[in-house]
Amino acid sequence: MESKSALVLGAGGFIGSHLVKKLKEEGFWVRGVDLKYPEHWKTYADDFVIGDLRLKDVVEDVLDKRFDEVYQLAADMGGAGYINSGDNDAEVMGNSILINVNVLKQAEKVGIKSVFFSSTACVYPEYNQMDPGSINTKEDSVYPAAPDTEYGWEKLFSERLYLAYNRNYGMKNKIARYHNVYGPYGTWDGGKEKAPAAICRKVAKAIDEIEIWGNGEQHRSFLYIDEAVKATIDFYREDKYFQPINIGSERNVSINELVDIVSTIADKKLTKRYVDGPLGVHARTSHNELIKNILGYRPSEDLEYGLKQTYDWIKGQIDNVR
Q1: What is the CATH number of the domain that holds 281?
Q2: Which residues contact 232 (CB under 8 A, 6 or more apart)?
Q3: Is the domain of 196 the same as that of 133?
Q4: pLDDT above 90 as % of the chain
Q5: What is the pLDDT of residues 49-60, one digit of tens each?
């Protein structure tokens, strides 16, 4: 029997590269596309195309048939140091919008009925994320819209684009809003890394002091990569719900607490030194009532396990450079 085929756009990225591996384990023939290969491990794709999805011709070449599953994770993005600085807004917005317009036009042209689109928790209004005790990230709380970054505005616009294709062309596109996915084999330095990777790197390199942006009381939830990939695939294959949904953890911790957990894993006692830096919203965590109802989804919330896997891998990367 011929194996099913999947197309993963953004397959050189963190979530994308893990998704390719999982699909291969399920027996799919997988084509991956990105500007670069995965930075920290090999690709598991059967066919990996180095290509710029901002270019219409490239999208036509890679999306040239009816794949059984299409995952669109390609975007210009990064951690707070990249998307909250304001210095990269035009590129972040323009690049990602071009990619999504090209992908949807070509998908509809070749008869793809459903594309998975990776959105973000950054679409939620800043005014609902000021107090750790009263965070509101229910999916329907996204309007009146007020994301705190242009990255969030772009993702919100692109969500509407995918939903418009559902209405106008009878597609069944799926949209997931990721909340701080982390784990091994992701970016851990250079400015585009997310908080867990940045903290793991800082702790691994620290002797007696660690630098923290702001006062360390920014609150977030963090979801381990294996759980994010499983939820992604399960939601994409669910055939009844076609509105945006959260994929994240409901366990909320401060950056100070995150530092303490990683320091314990590393068996280090570190003094925290607070400095100015990009912060994002004050408090954000996933609201999982909807995904629980639709998928019966409950992440393990074992932050300590995930951080240990991540810390050990990042420490190994640092030790190999020395």
Answers
A1: 3.90.25.10
A2: 15, 19, 71, 116, 118, 176, 247
A3: no
A4: 79
A5: 999 999 999 999
Same domain, 174 and 99: yes
Number of domains making up the chain: 2
Q: Report the DSSP pairing between strands 29-34 and 47-50.
A: parallel
231 and 127 within one domain: yes
Q: What gap in Å lies between CA 34 and CA 122, rounded to an integer?
A: 23
pLDDT higher than threshold 60 for residue 243: yes
> Reduced to 3 states, what is the DSSP secondary structure of residue 46?
coil
Which residues constitute the domain of residue 170?
A: 5-181+225-247
Rounded CA-CA distance 212/275 in Å is 6
Record the pTM.
0.92
Is 224 a known active-site residue? no
Q: What is d(CA 108, CA 113) in angstroms, rounded to the nearest whole number?
A: 7
Which of 44, 151, 165, 236 is the catalytic position? 151
Closest CA to 123 of 151, 165, 84, 89: 151
pLDDT in tens, 153-203: 999 999 999 999 999 999 999 999 999 999 999 989 887 788 899 999 999
More confident site: 213 or 112 = 112
Q: Confirm whether 295 is domain-assigned.
A: no
Q: Is residue 148 part of a domain?
A: yes
